[in-house]
Amino acid sequence: MAFILHIESATENCSVALSKDNEILSIINENNTLRHSEIITLLINKILDTSGIKYKDLSAVSISEGPGSYTSLRVGTSAAKAICYVWNLPLISVNTLYSLGFKTYITEPENNYFFPVIDARRMEVYGSLFDSKMTPLFENLPIILDEFDIYKYLVKNSVVYLSGNGADKTKEFLKESSFINTNIKCSSENLVLPAFLKFKNKEFEDTAYFSPNYIKPPNITIPKPKIL
Q1: Domains along the chain with CATH numbers
Q2: What secondary structure does DSSP assign to 49-112, as a single string?
Q3: pLDDT tens, position by position, 69-109
Q4: Do residues 4 and 165 make contact, with C-beta atoms less than 8 angstroms apart?
Q5: Is there a cis peptide before residue 67, judged by omega within 30 degrees of 0?
Q6: Measured by CB atoms within 10 angstroms of the end CB, which terminus of the chain is less buried, N or C?
Q7: Neighbour-count burial of 89, counting CB atoms closer than 10 A to its CB (0-12 exposed, 13-18 middle, 19+ buried)
């Protein structure tokens, strides 16, 4: 029996869950992109308190590794690493796009494509495309929507399920009815089964060297010098 703490902070949803094996015991979702650093520790403590589970009872911590918001990913990763260091727990990472695609895969009909996308602002998203067996056709790609040709990857007349907070924006460029928005968004719920499978296979990260999958470096602007 494994108690696993799951942390999802890649997007505007700061989400924490606790599972026993692949069963969710408790989950909290807070949709406020500006407060991850303020609330994430509070959410973790609340999840454990309400479940009657202590840190020493945990078997592992799973983290949504990105892509996503640079700052939010760092917040989630820092919290996960701190817990793993203090309580000597293994760290499990789950690719954020894979978790979205996998969640769709287990809830939608087979023999289709799964296209999870995360908003990267302006005309860009981060995306992956998976076939009906969750084999990636491309992974973790920065996509400029008005330049990208997804059709070269698809069999004609196939159904494509969109997920993630970039789905609405992406669907505007995909006029065919065969593109369906599942409205599945980033949540720690999506990490539970992939993380449990990794736990059973002992697929752990090196906590000291683990870093989120940002795809691209942060967009840091340098202020202009003041004219005295």
Answers
A1: 3-95+187-200 (3.30.420.40), 97-181 (3.30.420.200)
A2: HHHT--GGG--EEEEE--SS-HHHHHHHHHHHHHHHHHHT--EEEE-HHHHHHHHHHTTS-SSS
A3: 999 999 999 999 999 999 999 999 999 999 999 999 998 87
A4: no
A5: yes
A6: C
A7: buried
Strands 124-130 and 113-119: antiparallel
Starting at the edge strand found earlier in the chain, the sheet holding 13-20 runs: 23-31, 13-20, 3-8, 60-64, 91-94
Amino acid at 101: G
DSSP per-residue codes, 158-225: --EEEESTTHHHHHTT--STTEEE------GGGGHHHHHHHHHTT--B-TTT-----SS---PPPPPP
From 26, 19, 23, select the one nearest 4 (Cα to Cα).
19
20-40 pLDDT, tens digit each: 999 999 999 998 767 899 999
DSSP structural state of residue 153: G
d(CA 59, CA 10): 23
The structure tokens listed for 199 are 């736990």
Q: Tokens in use for 13?
A: 């949803």
Q: Write the pLDDT tens digit of every residue in 138-193.
A: 999 999 999 999 989 998 888 999 999 999 999 988 877 789 999 999 999 999 99
Burial class of residue 88 in the structure, from the number of CB atoms within 10 Å of its CB (0-12 exposed, 13-18 middle, 19+ buried): exposed
Q: Give 140-152 pLDDT, tens digit per residue.
A: 999 999 999 998 9
In angstroms, the CA 29 to CA 15 distance is: 4
Q: In whole angstroms, what is the distance from residue 143 CA to residue 130 CA?
A: 15
